[in-house]
């Protein structure tokens, strides 16, 4: 299997790349600055490009089976444009599987209310949460087999394997390690249970 990782130089992206190589996947790390990936591997290819450049994204995507995205773009419009570029390239090559990271605010607090719309949700995170939700809506319309993973606080740490997930809702605790987030994303690549879903995750 050949996977492409967007956001490959970020905290979670680096964990995804390393764990995917440990599973003997062929990995392309898409990065604006490839020198931020500080290791080499026979199964690793680095593709230098900007995810806002639709032609570069399409060029990088050719020949891959799965997209994993750990993009951390702060600007809401640029985030949306990046995912539009990814979705467009996937459709061009008839790729179906994408696992991407969003945010906890996309999940449901109850049957009618998203977490981002609850009184206790921090005001400073509402704008980015709405940007994540816009991406989620775009993925739903795309026809792709997506999994939108919506973590709480992401903590730099290794994989423990001790985490819980819940479809559509937040499982309850306030953090997840980068290693465990990467582990889950790789575990569900071929698991149809998680196709076309948003997933809450936290360490147990």
TrEMBL record:
Organism, scientific name: Solitalea canadensis (strain ATCC 29591 / DSM 3403 / JCM 21819 / LMG 8368 / NBRC 15130 / NCIMB 12057 / USAM 9D)
Q: Which InterPro entries match?
A: NAD(P)-bd_dom, NAD(P)-bd_dom_sf, Polyketide_Oxido-like
Mind telling me which Gene3D superfamilies this protein's record contains? Answer: NAD(P)-binding Rossmann-like Domain (3.40.50.720)
Any single Pfam family the record assigns to this protein:
NAD_binding_10
NAD(P)-binding domain residues are: 7-192
Q: Give the domain of life.
A: Bacteria
PANTHER family found in the cross-reference section: FLAVIN REDUCTASE (NADPH)
Q: What is this protein called?
A: Putative NADH-flavin reductase
Q: Which GO terms describe its molecular function?
A: oxidoreductase activity, acting on the CH-NH group of donors, NAD or NADP as acceptor
